[in-house]
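new request in #modeling-help
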Amino acid sequence: MSDERLDVRKTYKLLINGAFPRSESGRSYEVTSEAGEFLANAAQGSRKDLRDAVVAARGAQAKWWASSAYNRGQVIYRLAEMAESRRAELAEHVALAEGISTKKAERVVGRAIDRMVWYAGWTDKIAQVFGGANPVAGPFFNFSLPTPSGVVGVIASQDSSLEAFVDAVLAPIAAGNTVVAIASERRPTPAVLLGEMTATSDFPAGVLNIVTGFTAELASTLATHEDVDGIDLAGVDTDAADELSAAGAASIKRVFRPRDIDTASSTRRLRAFLETSTVWHTIGQ
Amino acid sequence: MTDNTVANSNLGSLEYDPAPESASIARIKTSYGLFIDGSFTEPSANEQFVTLNPATEQVLATVAQASTSDVDRAVAAARHAYETVWSKTTGAERSKYLFRIARLIQERARELAVVETLDNGKPIRESRDIDIPLAAAHFFYYAGWADKLDHAGFGVNPQPIGVAGQIIPWNFPLLMAAWKLAPALAAGNTCVLKPAETTPLSALLLAEILQQAELPPGVVNILTGDGATGAALVDHPGVDKIAFTGSTDVGRLIQSRVAASQKRLTLELGGKGANIVFEDAPIDEMIEGVIDGIFFNQGHVCCAGSRLLVQESIADEVLRRLVRRVEQLRVGDPMDKNTDVGAINSAAQLARITELTAIGEQEGATRYSSSCELPEKGYWFAPTIFADVSQSHRIARDEIFGPVLSVLTFRTPDEAVAKANNTNYGLACGVWSEKGSRTLWVAQRLRAGVIWANTYNRFDPTSPFGGVRESGFGREGGRHGLEAYLNV
Amino acid sequence: MSTAPLRLISREDHGVKIPPSNTLEAVASETQLRAILGSLSGVDAVGVEGRAAKLATRSIKKSTKLRAIDLAISMVDLTTLEGADTPGRVSSLCAKALRPDPRDLTVPSVAAVCVYPDLVAHARSIVAVSGVNVASVATAFPSGRASLNVKLLDVREAVSAGADEIDMVIDRGAFLAGRLGQVFDEIVAVKDACGDAHLKVILETGELVTYDNVRRASWLAMLGGADFIKTSTGKVSVNATPPVALVMLEAVRDFAETSGRVVGVKVAGGIRTTKDAMKYLVLVNETAGSTWLSPDLFRFGASSLLNDLLMQRLKQHRGAYVRPDEFSGD
């Protein structure tokens, strides 16, 4: 008779509007580790799940932007706190998903958390770095304010299950957007974990929504959805990205595609989903 | 209206019962040493002085007087930490230290607020709702710069200056410490900080917080002491940068002393802020703003709106409302949650306020002082308004640094601007009008580092603060606040 | 602003016949009205909200709190305004109004019960001449969308049924469309129809939206003869808020100074807890002043607030938190 205790297995669900539902389609798909071990029956998200997620993201966006930059920074920093306290669990998931050693996975997690801290500290600097007063030739006070595009769809990297995911979702969120993210198809579990952590980080419902499933099935729904203002195409290959970009043109989407110049210090992802609003006010007695 | 029942009798007023905050959380020690190289240490010359609660004149604790050799030790520790540890610490790591400190301030907020009120005399409501939250926020803000200095607008990979000597005043002790330490550390400098001699306690509590945050020893050193300690720090050849907040007189001294050295310098000095009220000001909010502008923090604010420049057409009405409002200010026990105006920080400051106020009367201004009862013990001054003040009066020109408002009038926007600028100071001004174009027109012409429109005394870590002309140079807060601590 | 006592329209007759809007007299009045309302100072939203928030930090404890709770109880207009109201419901309400806590006769009775006009007679039969007033909503409450004739008939019926107080609604549509003279004239007409009954004018501040509008509507109502100005019907999504109350308290204070007439303020809708009530009393105390700390000049339009006041009162005496079921549900 074995002394080993039977473990309680985890269900990996979607994150939509602050709640964790299964796919409305009822479907799931098998996620295995890089080595082929069964990891989870992840939800196989549908177009309708994406639609619901976009509604949630849109519903949350005005309030997210209306909260202070300080508050947004606090929320993102709290996510870093949560992730730090669950570092071991995250590392284990990354190791299994990506087929790397625990040590390497721990370094990945460390970098991902530092990236969360990076973005936490951006929220109250964006206006200063990307906005400013403009010395127009006339008696006007003129200033430019960066404002978020709105709802951003993220098709996350297929390979980098946590680090790139964090970067892709937190950049728009730090700038005041809300996000609907399609996690890596084969390596979704670290992203799902991160989603769970947002629930204990004072993230308002709908700010980050995560749908797992088959990228090919889901990508075009997100890329063509007219109530999505911007799209990050990191998780599809060049041909698919070309197609999706073209599809997004119908609603003049802001499209972000990874480039070589995207170093750790780059602000391209931040700027990709920022608009600039310029105000003129007369000056006179 | 028919009579209501018996229980209605005697309900004509709402006198607030005392609502004291408990001081027991404070756990103030009997005595404190100097914080050098990560731990508390005895001063070399074994000299001490006491710090009092200005509301009661009771001794709170004994603190050390740092001598020149203590200053040597501290600067050496800061230099060593800079060369061997801090300059090798990445921005991301510095960022995380600062986030830790910010969180610890939030966690120990109540304790810090109580200590601040006991040591400074300001109402607990202000320490609790303004000083401590802003201090935490300042650390949060600069934490976020430490790992992104490339984006601060000073070029790629800007470098720190080295060891910063920082001298702060007694009016916002913890907040001023935050304003100095946070940007300096974010930029990669190490620090030797000297709090004011009448308000050392919150800085010493901050030292404990730095230990809890496991900030590497020597990165921040805190030396208590009086002007002599400050002078030793200013003169020390091992210090690369001096940051001073205090009176213009001392600022002049410091500037002359560092003139022949390579030291960088920023100064945040005094002011005689003009609160300009046009006839179309939103009247009730303006009254609050004028009152807050001068009586907040007992008027111990460099950017206080100590001159009211009111458009002549509404001057009588405004004065009437101000006098009525002043009577409603609750002056008394700073530890009472309902107190609006607390104690004057020291006997010396009280003497100065009293002297200048007497001069105001002699100069012929009309004095209105609150009829509030003042406690027997402690340092107290009733909120006071002087009407019929002229530009040439000393109470229109000298910084009183107390709860005394001087009221002058103007007729046109031009005249308002001229009067507001007719001072060697240039720290802050207020403009009250519902006409945006006029507000902006006035703001453009005011010689001031901070201009508040339809509000007053608003501070935020993202918003640069500092003066022009004899109110000093350099800015604290915002992206601009990094400049003082970068070698750019 | 004029410092002379204000008397906008020197007309003798305030009967139903309002001159049509295209006559010279009405135009002149509307012009005068606009001039007065237009000369009122604007309200800075950030400033007024900041002041209300600061005053919300006042700590009301111990004997102050006990006195304030009793004061608040005596200021309650205990209200039921539902389509489903019946005489039975009104009977319960009135019983509670008279004796909020039957086991403790030191608890003051409330100021009034507030019901729809067709239940006034029934309410009157229960509260009789106890000192608890009968207030009736009227003028096609809550929307106010009916002809003036219908609205005045509504008022007269309530008054003859025994209402001591009438809570009318202003025509918000007319106000927002700029027909200030019409809004004014209706108030004057309703005040006349009230006879000896005391008139509260509901501004419906949630629909007026801006503080500038609240200030102007407050003055308009007071100039028209209101005995009380009231925030809300309680039937829309945004009802009384501390900053709105602050603006109205400033208005009654300033109006008293310029005209010599003292008008009361009623806050209604969304005030559920003792903590809320304390905030409002602090606002009254530190804005209009102690004169207004009386049921004659300040009221809470509420239903569930009463039980929370009773619970807090009992808690102060017992020293422990009490169960809601300690008190009757209605």
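bot summary: The longest strand of chain B covers residues 58-64.
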